[in-house]
Amino acid sequence: MATYTFDVFSSLDGFGSATDEWTGYWGKQGPELLEHRADLFGEEQLMVFGPDTYRMFSGFFLSGEEFGDIWTRRMSAMRKVVVSRSMTPDEPLSWPNTTLMRGDAVEVVARLKEESDIPLRSHGSLRMNHALMAAGLVDRVQVTIFPVITGITGRAPVFGGAADFDLDLLETRTLDGRTEQLVYAPQLHSPRPR
């Protein structure tokens, strides 16, 4: 069975993005982070996106915005699946190498994990990945924490609305002396009987 990694960027206070001038890496990307990301995306993987994240990334592609980092160019070239119940079959899939799989994300990803001969990875797609974690389909949660607090401008709480999980730490890495990458194996938390 293929492994599935939920890969997400976060501020220290748990937001996936921010308003104003802070975008992407919050201006804190360094050479070690970018090289490590390029290595992560150097192996073949099947990228899995929810419809909103897919539209955002494909919008970058359509606008002619350069995927300036090696890892984003590699991600752009990989095979991609967008999982959606709301997208219509005739909605254009403008990002190359993309397939639409209509249906419930839990059912689609369970099938992909069984059928795929390469690892699965999702970058972003928060709501979809919350549901996949709750269903026990996420093998690794990879959180890259940037050295910023976005108490005023923070948007998209990375785990806001997710269930409760116990996490087993599998790997930790400091990049450029300031950015932390943490990799966990999640397990749905069972509350104590009361």
From TrEMBL:
UniProt-listed Pfam families: RibD_C
Listed Gene3D superfamilies: Dihydrofolate Reductase, subunit A
Annotated Bacterial bifunctional deaminase-reductase C-terminal domain residues: 5-176
Superkingdom of origin: Bacteria
Protein's recorded name: Dihydrofolate reductase family protein
